[in-house]
Amino acid sequence: MNLTVMWLVLAIILFIIEAITVGMVCIWFGIAAVVSMLSTFVTSNVYIQWLIFIIVAVVTLVLFRPLAKKSISDSKEKTNSEALIGRTAFLTDEINEEKRGRLKVGDVSWIAVSQSGETIAKGEKVKIVSITGNKLVVQKV
Fold first, then answer.
1. Which terminus of the chain, N or C, has less C-beta within 10 A?
2. For 89-126, how does the pLDDT look when each residue is reduced to its tens digit (9 = 90+)?
3. SS3 letters across 97-131
């Protein structure tokens, strides 16, 4: 088998594995295989081609993977109930030691409990600090 074809086949296999796993690992080895494939036009020495593959794979993995992972993870938006944390709302029912209160966020009415256990009157502005089960944990603003 021609070395150029071998490197091309290896690159395609690595890119397919990356597409299936989406782990941001195989892509760098696929890029290294493409560079090694291009090196077959310059040298026919297999050892030099493997050395190029290893160097390019390590350099791209170490330098570019953290940047790629950061750019992907920064674009995540909070969704569903997770998006409620940090928002403010007004209580529709009082919270006290004996009774949970309620608040409305958008069109949904939620059970609310005080983070500190203090009594919070109906109509008070509160900040949602966390979610426990189906209850919003709030603090007075």
1. N
2. 999 999 988 888 999 888 888 999 998 888 999 999 99
3. CCCCEEEEECCEEEEEEECCCCCECCCCEEEEEEE
Tokens standing for 35?
């560079």
Would the pTM of this model clear 0.70, i.e. be above it?
Answer: no
Q: What distances in angstroms separate CA 137 from CA 50, 61, 95, 97, 134, one per listed residue? A: 57, 42, 11, 14, 10
Distances in Å between the Cα of 84 and the Cα atoms of 39, 50, 78, 112 are: 54, 52, 9, 12
Q: What is the DSSP letter of 14?
A: H
Task: Tokens for 120, please give them.
Answer: 């919070």
CATH of 80-140, one of 2.40.50.140, 1.10.3720.10, 2.60.40.730, 3.30.565.10: 2.40.50.140
